[in-house]
Design brief:
This protein is mainly α and 233 residues long. It contains eight helices and no strands. The two termini are 23 Å apart. The relative contact order is 0.13.
Length: 233
């Protein structure tokens, strides 16, 4: 994700030639990254419900996601006023997480329901869904002009798949998701360090998501300034 966004920054500042809006090289990467996000979010809900996460704790985390989504909208409006993000990945996750939480008892039924959610935008569309007030549903006739667009349909289906698959794993072979952290020794220190780094990133995934772009833009702008090149505004 970070590498993809850094490449986008380079293209946006005309430092490389790349079309992130229509070139399959980049659009396919976006689809894979976004699918991974939502599968993991669905998996997280499966683990949380299995561990008895309270609604109060769910809402606290949900409020963090909504707050970050609003910051993304504000920041994107500053950088891209004509194509700011009104319903991107965090906005979509805020809605889909509520649906996932409520539908978790359906368990394996979520697999076919997910297939319906993924297929529905391919079969049904209407101009009524093309406005900013309604395009978040996903049944649009064309993609809106925005830097990120993650409507409920079809992406809820991907989150449902992650939720149902993880519920199945937890029920049939929970040891798969309970691997012990490596302790580290003379021959395994690097392995243990890499594991801890991944665990830390997972624990602070939302924070990393929010800060990685400002940090990369600052570093890129600083590098341009040091080399005497103009910094795009």
């Amino acid at each position: 994700m970070a590498a993809f966004h850094f490449s986008f920054d380079l293209a946006n500042w005309r430092l490389i030639e790349a079309n992130f809006y229509s070139d399959p090289l980049w659009t396919t990467q976006r689809t894979c990254i976004l699918s991974t996000f939502l599968i993991c979010a669905g998996a997280g809900q499966a683990v949380a419900t299995a561990q008895g996460q309270s609604w109060a704790r769910f809402w606290r985390r949900w409020a963090q996601i909504v707050g970050c989504a609003l910051l993304v909208t504000l920041g994107s409006w500053f950088m891209f006023p004509q194509s700011y993000i009104s319903f991107g990945v965090l906005h979509g996750m805020a809605v889909m997480l509520i649906v996932a939480r409520l539908s978790a008892p359906l368990r394996l039924w979520l697999l076919p329901l997910g297939a319906v959610a993924v297929a529905l935008p391919l079969l049904v569309s209407h101009p009524w869904f093309d406005t900013r007030a309604t395009n978040w549903i996903g049944l649009v006739t064309h993609k809106p002009i925005t830097e990120d667009f993650v409507p409920v349909l079809p992406w809820l289906g991907v989150m449902w798949w992650g939720l149902a698959a993880t519920q199945f794993v937890l029920a049939k072979c929970p040891h798969v998701l309970a691997a012990a952290s490596p302790q580290g020794d003379r021959n395994g220190d690097n392995h243990a360090f890499a594991w801890r780094a991944l665990v830390t990133l997972g624990q602070w995934s939302l924070t990393f998501y929010m800060v990685h772009q400002p940090v990369m833009l600052a570093l890129l702008g600083g590098a341009l300034w040091l080399t005497g090149r103009p910094v795009p505004m």
